[in-house]
């Protein structure tokens, strides 16, 4: 399970759509719940290829310096068919340098038996804040210094730069 999550993050953050073949079933389904106006995604995506297009190709065409963190880590021998965790992300917009930092929840479902692949992923985006490009270096330095991609929420919050606009994200992760 941990390997599947890691493969997804490396594919998305590194703009490597081919990696999703190792993580997602061909007929996988993605649901997006977006509770913020700061970013948008289609509500439902069907098939691994369409997921790769939305979450990797299109996302990677618009953003760079992407760091996604799972704030909970599955147990190494966890063989269950479900896993939920909170996540946090930071990135810069390629065209403008504008910075986005946010958090939400992942709900994963996995196939049984082998090969285990992601059959379903629900991504909830709770909060996404937008910061000026002048904050880009501070945010990138902070994110690149965190344990990646597994980071405790307390570490994410405790090490955050003192930028007032980050408060909604930090308050949400404390709660």
Automatic annotation (TrEMBL):
SUPFAM superfamilies: NTF2-like. This is SnoaL-like domain-containing protein. The lineage of its organism: Bacteria, Pseudomonadati, Pseudomonadota, Alphaproteobacteria, Rhodospirillales.
